[in-house]
Design brief:
Length: about 220
């Protein structure tokens, strides 16, 4: 282990110690009292408090001004979960997908969930102005691109299609196709419906090629 890495780890350890002491305290503490508790130099404590303040982990507290002289700076820990801790959203997604797949009418529920989310996506127009099919598809491609689907405009036999070259939920889509793919289909359907677009997504073919899913578009006569 290099000296730089070791120094960084020691610094992080001291910062955790400062936070631990503040969390354990029933009242706000001064720099001097924290330093005495940890047997550290006050300047070292002041340095780590600066970082903890910037990270939103501790806060200043008004000191008692009844005593003569300049009151010391007082600190206390902010009582909340550590925002810098690890995240495991994939695990959450797997749990939710498994629960949805195990229930009745899982396909319909997944489709409805996707539609509800799709209706929240930003419309390409304002004040209910009508948009054409080409503009609708262009906007859909833009939305899907932002979501990580790597979409492309395609056409087969005169029918417009949207090819999806990437799945942002690839691992889940392979194991929970019955719920993940309907969510994607519903998302596109909900978005186009909320935009009052003259096109709709009729169906979604998953993995027609190893690196391609196909969304088939159809014209809507009236919205």
């Amino acid at each position: 282990m290099s000296a730089i890495v070791r120094s960084a780890e020691e610094s992080a350890g001291r910062r955790c110690d400062v936070l631990r002491v503040l969390r354990a305290a029933s009242v706000p503490m001064s720099i001097t009292s924290i330093a005495a508790e940890l047997h550290l130099h006050p300047n070292t404590v002041r340095f780590h408090l600066g970082t903890l303040l910037s990270d939103g982990r501790v806060e200043h507290v008004e000191a008692d001004r009844k005593r003569p002289g300049r009151p010391p700076l007082m600190f206390r820990a902010i009582r909340e979960m550590d925002p810098s801790g690890p995240r495991h959203y994939r695990l959450l997604a797997e749990i939710l997908a498994m629960s949805l797949a195990a229930g009745r009418n899982s396909h319909a529920k997944a489709l409805a969930a996707g539609r509800a989310w799709g209706q929240r996506l930003e419309s390409p127009t304002r004040h209910g102005k009508k948009i054409g099919a080409h503009e609708s598809i262009d906007h859909l491609l833009g939305v899907l691109d932002e979501l990580g689907f790597a979409p492309e405009r395609r056409e087969s036999g005169g029918v417009s299609q949207v090819g999806l070259r990437h799945c942002p939920f690839l691992e889940l889509a392979k194991t929970r196709t019955t719920v993940v793919c309907p969510i994607h289909l519903g998302l596109m359907q909900g978005a186009l419906a909320s935009w009052k677009a003259p096109v709709a997504v009729d169906r979604l073919e998953a993995f027609v090629e190893p690196d391609l899913c196909l969304a088939h578009l159809t014209l809507v006569t009236a919205r």
